[in-house]
Amino acid sequence: MIQVTNQNFKNIPALHVVRQDLHGEKLPTVFFYHGFQSEKELYLHYGYFLAEQGFRVILPDAKFHGERKRDTTSAEQAVYFWDTVQANIDELAGLRDELVRAGLSDAERIGVGGVSMGAITSLGILARYDWVKVAVSLMGSAYYGEFANELVEQATAHGMEFPFDTAKRIKELEPYDLSEQLEKVNGRALLLWHGKKDDVVPFKYSEKLYDRLLEEEQAEQVEFVVDDQAKHKVSIDGINRTTDFFQKNAYKRCW
Q1: Residue 70 — φ and ψ, nearest 5°?
Q2: What domain of life (predicted)?
Q3: What are phi and psi of 167, to 5 degrees?
Q4: pLDDT score recorded for residue 251
Q5: pLDDT tens digits, residue range 99-134?
């Protein structure tokens, strides 16, 4: 039986998903992040499938989303998109430490994954933390600076105004930009899944990342899965590949 509880870790609301018979054991743990203007509950199926395979899964609500949305407007969510991504990344260390201290998570077997904004988060996490051993990006971009500039151009073309210096803010993302420090992949297991017809997070970003990882001989543990027909939605095959990827790498040397 799969047990799902809504808990706070470091004052961050999250769904905690685990097989009931494994609840108190030290387990490999996956932190899975939801997409833009969404919430943790809508990604529970990822937690369920992974928990069936023996993982402990934590699905946090992102800043300005879900239980943390409060009176944040949709426009504010868009303006502060990168604040949300950065908060996800910065908050991970505290979540992980709390679970490790409680004896529930194996510090040597921590994985991350996510969809869209959550995938962007996961790629930034690889740039920030060397103790994350496995990552899954479903429709993400590791090119923080390039994608942020693209989003700003699109937003301003539609009349959106930013209450801060966008160039300065984008500059502040550099420590989280995996595309500028590919050596940090460092042989870790990474799954990139992307639909060629994605009209939200362009496919080109995953393709370019994979090509560069190949060029720099960092792709030994990297898998790139292309869905020729998918737009900005993960297929059933993509969901299954996510579960299979974590399971396949759960007890490998890379963990």
Answers
A1: 50, -120
A2: Bacteria
A3: -65, -40
A4: 56
A5: 999 999 999 999 999 999 999 999 999 999 999 999
Contact predicate 173/145, CB 8 Å: yes
In-domain check, residue 106 = yes
- Tokens at residue 105, please? 């998570």
User: What mean pLDDT, rounded, does the chain reach?
Assistant: 96
Q: Which residue has the tokens 């792709």?
A: 219
Domain count, the chain: 1
Q: What's the CA gap between 133 and 122, in Å, rounded? A: 11
156's tokens: 């301003």
Q: How many CB atoms lie within 10 A of CB 252?
A: 12
Whether 179 and 143 have beta carbons less than 8 Å apart is answered as: yes
Distances (CA, A) of 229 to 98, 195, 206: 41, 6, 16
3-state class percentages of the chain: helix first, strand second, coil last, to nearest 5: 45, 25, 35
Residue 160 is part of a domain; what is its CATH number? 3.40.50.1820
Give me the domain span that covers residue 92.
2-249
254 located within any domain: no
pLDDT tens, position by position, 127-160: 999 999 999 999 999 999 999 999 999 999 999 9
Give CA–CA dist 95/100, Å, rounded.
9
H-helix or E-strand containing 172? none
